[in-house]
Amino acid sequence: MIWTSPHQQNMNNTTKTKTMKQLVLILAVLALYSCTEANVVKEKTKYVVKDEYDPLEVVVMDSCEYLYGDWSNATVLTHKGNCKNHK
Ligand SMILES: [Zn+2]
């Protein structure tokens, strides 16, 4: 057993509280960032609109389908138009 004076124990508690506060702050920041995380269903398609471009993806929002192309020089998101909502 390591003997510590009451003064030293008090110091340790202060450090712990500080660490806890920092942890809470980090968690709060993480929670803030997680709000902008992708939360849609994305599916790769076979459609390639330009040579060497990645195939288009289909994104579903409120049961509407959108064509999504994410390329280095452009990003496209457009309503597919033939989803089951409109039939
Ligand atoms: Zn639609």
Task: Describe, in plain words, how this protein is organized in 3D.
Strands 1-2-3-4 form a 4-stranded antiparallel sheet, with no helix packed on it. With 87 residues, the protein is of the alpha+beta class. The protein is built from 1 helix and 4 strands. The protein folds into 2 domains: 1-37; 41-86, no CATH class. Bound molecules: zinc ion. Zinc ion is lined by residues 64-65, 79, 83, 85-86. Residues 64-65, 79, 83, 85-86 line the site of zinc ion (ZN).
Uncertain regions spanning at least 5 consecutive residues: none
Mean pLDDT: 84
Walk across the major sheet and give the strand order: 1-2-3-4
What is the gyration radius calculated from CA atoms? 26 Å
Number of strands: 4
Fold topology:
Layout: H1 6-34, E1 41-44, E2 57-61, E3 64-71, E4 74-79
Antiparallel strand pairs: 1-2, 2-3, 3-4
Bound molecules: zinc ion (ZN).
Zinc ion binds at residues 64-65, 79, 83, 85-86.
Briefly characterize the structure.
With 87 residues, the protein is α+β, with helices and mostly antiparallel strands.
Please give a handful of descriptors for the protein shown.
single chain, 87 residues, alpha+beta, 2 domains, 4-stranded antiparallel beta sheet, 4 strands, 33% helix, binds zinc ion
